[in-house]
Amino acid sequence: MRLRPHHLLCTQSYSGKGYDDAFVKNMNQITALLRSDTPVPIEIVCETDDLCEHCPNKVKKNVCKDNDKVNAYDAKVKEYFHIEEKTYIYQDITREIREKMTPDILEDICGNCGWYPVSACKKILCRAAR
Fold first, then answer.
1. CA atoms of 14 and 12, how far apart (whole Å)
2. Which residues pair with 3 in a beta bridge?
3. What are the per-10-residue average pLDDT scores of the chain (130 residues)?
């Protein structure tokens, strides 16, 4: 499975809402696999990934209508959590992210995301900060 760096955050806090039915169906399938107890190898890529395949904001391969914004999210996730474009075990890397996440880091990364104010991101990703 291929994931953008910022999708390491989205997949942890996803709660069944999305852009349209095709997106939600794809997201449900991917998050169910990622949230299982079975270790899931993921390849980190800074381009469109498996979540993007059914996103209505995907213009074409490696192009999102909000390209600058999603690239900035990816860059910040890579910087804050020292993530590289390589293969990780999803459960391990997301646990490390949650251990290091703070409300200020999350706000810096995701503050201008349209899903941020209506999602469970802060509750789920900042658990260790409480």
1. 6
2. 44
3. 96 82 90 94 95 79 84 97 98 95 95 82 74
Asked if 9 contacts 125 with a C-beta cutoff of 8 angstroms, the reply is: yes
CA distance 59 to 12: 25
Give the helix ranges, DSSP H, for the chain: 7-13, 21-34, 67-81, 90-100, 103-110, 121-125
Contacts of 68 (CB under 8 A, 6+ apart): none
pTM of the model: 0.91
Residues contacting residue 104 through CB under 8 Å, at least 6 positions apart: none
- Cα–Cα dist 18/21, whole Å: 8
- Looking at residue 130, its pLDDT comes to 44
Is the CB of residue 9 less than 8 Å from the CB of residue 97?
yes
Neighbours of 86 (CB within 10 A): 9
Owner of token pair 């260790």 = 128
